[in-house]
UniProtKB/TrEMBL annotation:
It comes from Kitasatospora viridis. One of its GO terms (molecular function) is 2-oxoglutarate-dependent dioxygenase activity. It holds the Pfam family PhyH. Keywords: Dioxygenase, Oxidoreductase. This is Phytanoyl-CoA dioxygenase PhyH. InterPro entries: Phytyl_CoA_dOase-like. Gene3D superfamilies: q2cbj1_9rhob like domain. SUPFAM superfamilies: Clavaminate synthase-like (SSF51197).
Length: 271
């Protein structure tokens, strides 16, 4: 509230586009983290689907204060713009010695948009150790369209990321990313608070673009991940190039000509 949002930069946006997620470690102050466990254990009253963010949470509520943390406010604004809608929120608890992991899934059921995406914020008030059932996610899976739990039969993909993080970490996810809460083998409950945002503005150049032409942007966009098949891995980069075109408004952006070479549509020859 009193502090200005800290926007993401282009390298961070490119990382989000390639990985399907971006983590901001320990950005939430210790006082808020200390308050969070009690608040989350009690539960957060639901918000009606589609409530504008500025109307969703009372100004002095825990959630409003969490969303006012400059790095959190800046990331939300950079990814979905100034006044997104709250799709829903939920407190996710992995119970101590819970015995089960959640199957790998995407939270979106059939979402074929290529020019817009929802973003999920995941906030971890406690330090999460490997035993505590951090959220597993598969980097680079968000643009491979699957229907919600169809990926549930996949176990342990190469390059998967089991979240281990310090207290006060916030992770932003593209809605399509494959993820799941892991088994909690510790004696402590693991809390996570998730909010899904729907953009209300075109997701174009909403971040701090002063580094747009930094070579690190291209390097981030062109990464490959160890679970990709050789050829379909190219399709992932093709889809990223399309998403980067949408985000930047640059109709010629490409990675190694993958989009350009299949955009060639010669018309009939003129005699
Ligand atoms: O608890 C977690 O770490 C993930 C929860 C989740 O993805 C879900 O319930 O949809
Ligand atoms: Fe989920």
């Amino acid at each position: 509230m009193e502090n200005k949002p800290i926007l993401l930069n282009s390298v961070q946006l490119a990382r989000f586009v390639a990985h399907g997620s971006l983590r901001l470690d320990a950005v939430v102050p210790a006082e808020l983290n200390a308050e969070a466990v009690g608040v989350l254990a009690e539960g957060v009253a639901p918000v009606a689907y589609g409530t504008p963010l500025s109307k969703a949470y009372a100004p002095d509520s825990f959630t409003a204060r969490l969303l006012a943390v400059p790095q959190v406010a800046g990331a939300v604004r950079s990814l979905v713009g100034p006044e997104p809608l709250v799709d829903h929120h939920a407190v996710h608890v992995r119970e101590p010695r819970g015995g089960e992991a959640q199957p790998l899934h995407a939270d979106a059921i059939i979402d074929v948009r290529t020019d817009a995406f929802d973003v999920q914020l995941m906030y971890y008030p406690q330090a999460v150790t490997l035993e505590m059932g951090g959220t597993l996610s598969v980097p680079g899976s968000h643009l491979r369209r699957t229907n919600e739990s169809d990926t549930g039969r996949y176990q342990n993909l190469r390059g998967q990321d089991r979240l281990v993080c310090p207290a006060g970490t916030v992770v932003f996810l593209h809605h399509g990313i494959w993820h799941g809460g892991r088994r909690n083998d510790s004696d402590a409950a693991r809390y996570m608070f998730k909010i899904r945002f729907n953009p209300t503005v075109r997701q174009r150049l909403l971040w701090d673009t002063s580094d747009l032409h930094d070579p690190c942007v291209l390097a981030e966009l062109d990464v490959t991940f160890p679970w990709y098949e050789h050829a379909v891995g190219r399709l992932e980069r093709y889809n990223r190039a399309l998403l980067w075109r949408e985000l930047t408004g640059d109709p010629d952006f490409d990675l190694d000509h993958w989009v350009t070479r299949v955009s060639n549509r010669p018309q009939e020859a003129t005699a």
